[in-house]
Amino acid sequence: MGRTGVLLLNLGGPDSLADVRPFLYNLFSDPEIIRLPFRWLQKPLAWLIATRRAKTSEANYAQIGGGSPLREITEQQAQALQESLAQEGVTAKIYIGMRYWHPFTEAALAQIKADGIEELVILPLYPQFSISTSGSSFRLIESLWQEDSALQKIKYTIIPSWFNNRGYIQAMVALLRQELDQLPEPEKATIFFSAHGVPISYVTEEGDPYQAEIEACVHLIMQTLGRSNPHVLAYQSRVGPVEWLKPYTEDVIPELAASGVKELVVVPISFISEHIETLQEIDMEYRELAEESGIHTFRRVPALNTHPEFIAGLRDLVTTALEAPPYTFAQVTHPRKQFKLYPQERWEWGMTSAAEVWNGRLAMIGFIALLLELISGQGPLHMAGLL
Ligand SMILES: C=CC1=C(C)c2cc3[nH]c(cc4nc(cc5[nH]c(cc1n2)c(C)c5CCC(=O)O)C(CCC(=O)O)=C4C)c(C)c3C=C
Ligand SMILES: [Fe+2]
């Protein structure tokens, strides 16, 4: 076996409050996060949204100590994974590639080349695949691969998602059980699975398997738990005006309270590390909402971080991937329809479906603007003397 490396992928988070705005700019510059018909619009719009959002986002990060703990926790996970692999006789160097903040994926790949890695396992730290997370990182790595002959010499394999991994499920269940058992009547509490949302169009139009993998994961956790607690699944962290996967966490909490639920145990389902969406959004915002709505017990299952069963699960994923035939970028396709899940459909001139949609939207905007101008008697066409 040649020199082996494992590349852990994650989203990244600001290390300090000063990093929040540039981090948001990087995030919104990604076409997998905001989809626009014209590439040239992406950066100016990213700048605008990052600038508008920075204040709220900074205040949220200030509430959790002034930055994201994601980098530190990921480093601990990398260390634990390296040790666990070594115990199984596998010598591997672990690299961290964040998508939107340090240590960036580009820097990790440069180090992988410098270290002369010959065999690489690419492991996203997202249990469920989404075009917006693992897909975005795969797209970036594939494009870097295509333009670099040194990278092309590395034998690589991808693990697209691992929501059904044994160690992961068992660790989730162990933590959930621990939390339930601290209640006077553990079997009565409602288990509330809260997943990070994505725009619904990713699932319905682009074929993102994210929702199906989240639902399958919830099913596996409940099956392994083997208890009859009532449970619900909802989606949190919505950004922007478009419709996201439903139901929304902030709607379901008061609905449950209104139906008489008094005890909630929240399971953050799409996150394996503590970060802003667990420490601030769930622990502060949703807790307050729950208490205001009349829920008297609100507990949150901790994120996995370096839970030993979870790390053992990651180790098994790596060792299995090293033994199996390589799984390549080209194989990350829609589970049933066999089209590639990333890169997203790019804007193409001509009679494409994207062109039809955008022509339709622009025509509607133009029609409404004309109508408003005719009703109000004011507007650019009047100014130009055309009306
Ligand atoms: C499964 C995990 C995640 C999915 C799916 C996801 C999609 C997604 N996220 C945004 C917008 C934001 N995400 C932000 C931070 C953030 N998101 C995830 C995970 C998923 N995102 C992580 C791990 C983090 C980092 C958290 C940290 O501790 O720093 C942010 C910034 C924070 C904030 O201002 O709220 C934004 C914005 C979109 C639009 C999206 C799908 C299209
Ligand atoms: Fe996010």
How would you describe this protein?
The chain has 387 residues and is of the alpha/beta class. It folds into 2 domains: 4-163 and 308-333, Rossmann fold; 166-300, Rossmann fold, CATH 3.40.50. It has 14 helices and 8 strands. It has helices at residues 20-28, 39-63, 70-87, 105-114, 134-146, 149-152, 166-180, 200-204, 210-225, 249-258, 276-293, 308-323, 353-376, 380-383; strands at residues 4-10, 92-98, 119-124, 155-158, 190-196, 231-236, 263-268, 297-300. It has a 4-stranded parallel beta sheet with strand order 2-1-3-4, with helices on both faces. Strands 6-5-7-8 form a 4-stranded parallel beta sheet, sandwiched between helices. Helix 1 packs antiparallel against helix 2. The model is unreliable at 344-353 (pLDDT under 50). Ligand L6N33NVT binds next to helix 2.
